[in-house]
Amino acid sequence: xxxxxTTPFNQAHKDANGKLIDFAGWELPIxxxxxxxxxEAVRTDAGMFDVSHMLVTDVSGDQxxxxxxxxxxxxxxxxxxxxxxxxxxxxxxxxxxxxDLIVYRTNEAETQYRIVSNGATREKDSAQFAKIGAEFGxxxxxxxxxxxxxxxxxxxxxxxxxxxxEWAQTVNNLAVFQxxxxxxxxxxxxxxxxxxxxxxxxxxxSEANAFFTALREAGVQPCGxxxxxxxxxxxxxxxxGNDMGDDTSPLxxxxxxxxxxxxENRDFVGKTALVALKEKGVAYKQxxxxxxxxGVLRDHMEVITxxxxxxxxxxxxxxxxxxxxxxxxxPKDFNGEAAKVLMRGKEVDVRVLRLPFVRNxxxxxx
Length: 366
Known about the structure:
Structural class: alpha+beta
Shape: globular
Oligomer: single chain
Order of helices and strands: HEEHEEHEEEHEEHHEEEHEHHEEEEEEEE
Radius of gyration: 21 Å
Largest sheet: 6 strands, mixed
């Protein structure tokens, strides 16, 4: 049996009584006693998540910009200044999603960038970076020495700045999808996964436990994978492996906005397949489902509509709404406000909604 990989926050999780589980080969906390309490902390106050299993890769080279314009479906030419971030899918030749990731521009000359990609897809992501990178002579530096902590919630920044008051000007000036280098391998960015205010802090692994402890003392609630999932579901945010994957087009997974086809001369991996699918017309679209009462929506449940059947890709009980919610793929031609889901052999009525369900602590539908 292979030993689980641990993050630099591992001891901090144990000190905070985290219940540690195997998550894609990593030992990470599912909760610290109450998943609901952790969820509520992020919606009303401040919580923090260890996301150090995600991989930070620094990219450098004269052709770094050209490399990214080939590697991902979104266009790094949009990164107009140092610190600007871009969310994108990285596609395979068939137009399926290898992973979703964030790219930061880290110097003026457009020769240095930083990628943050998912933990569960580390090996295949790195292999794709290297495969495409070989053509452009770029240098890839995986930053295994770094840790990453997401601090989220309406009071997240206020409590973070109690611990790091010297960051106030930098953090308060950050717009959404911007990052800033704070020196000494500390980096802060505003790219959240909860639908709330907050930041992600990348830091030296050697300083992880002390930082976590200081934030706890400032009143930031440690949060596990359970709350992370209910929060991202309410915010209508995709999870790799559930709502998208190698066989899913971003056009059918609610990620069409991350595909940039404006520059006809730019050729990126998967473009030919995407253009062909666009011309043919996609078969599915992404929606939200709400179950009023009775049971919990889960993934891989059949969705029955008057335009054909679809499937739930993620489902959970929403602590904020006190109802069960799901993200689903349904036929593109379906425009109704009601559908049915097959639960334990019975057809159950659900409302069909536009995502997200919750944003900045507020319900997003009538």
